[in-house]
Amino acid sequence: MDLSHKLRPNQPIGIFDSGIGGLTVANALAKRLPEEQLIYFGDTAHLPYGDKSGDAIRYYSLKITKFLLEQEAKMIVVACNSASTAASRVLLEFFPDQAHFVNVVDPLVEAVVARNFKSVGIIATKATIHSGVYQRQLKQLQPDLEVFGLATPLLVPMIEEGYSESRISQPIIDNYLSDPGFANIDALLLACTHYPLVRKEIEAYFDGRVEVFDSTEVATEAAYNCLKENHLLSSRLEAPHQFYVSDHTPSFEATTRLFYGEEINLKHFPLW
Ligand code: DGL
Fold this sequence. Notes:
Layout: E1 13-17, H1 23-32, E2 38-42, H2 54-70, E3 75-78, H3 81-94, E4 100-103, H4 105-113, E5 119-124, H5 126-131, H6 133-141, E6 146-151, H7 155-160, H8 169-177, E7 187-190, H9 199-206, E8 211-214, H10 215-229, E9 242-245, H11 250-260, E10 266-268
Parallel strand pairs: 1-2, 1-3, 2-9, 3-4, 5-6, 5-7, 7-8, 9-10
The chain binds D-glutamic acid (DGL).
């Protein structure tokens, strides 16, 4: 899409998620593209998206994207898997020619298909698995690929409560991964913002037999490539990153450190 007449390199990148999990992607973007200003919106008022209907997620995503475009975002990164699967298409339909869009599904699907595996597993929220989007996109690009998806809804609250690498997390992870659908997979997709935080435990379960993928790096690379191709890479950080949440509690502040890896200032923005 040629938007060169409308967009300038010094405009910010807008990024959103259902809450603070998308900060894993924001942090990767901030490290890979240190000259880019980020405007993050975490919809903590509606968290979790993983249990919501597609219609609800589309409605929230449209309103947040409108807000980020009003902040002059040149690119919208949909960091949430549940929002990427439910709303990617509708966002392009509602906001054609206004900004570049990057979601977390397409780059992950492309990275996996490039490796020509025989059988892959997906773990994600209920919304992501039941949308069937990952399964469809993988099969479209590689029809002979066997795909098995499993909703693993206990993982998000478990990780947010800080129970990674603990006596509680390993049995829950083992229980999900021992599903017979994963018996012969070559690769596993962690299709949720939170799961990179338990990646080590997941890898340990498979003991090197299964290659594990998450969206963070591939989505960051997709954002970089898109900006580069469109001559929209900023050469200098012109303003500090902004982190907005639609509801604010002290516990969100604490969880933030878990996901971003450093202290940030969350600002309450009552969008609803
Ligand atoms: N960010 C969501 C996702 O990646 C996980 C948390 C939620 O359910 O809202 O699907």
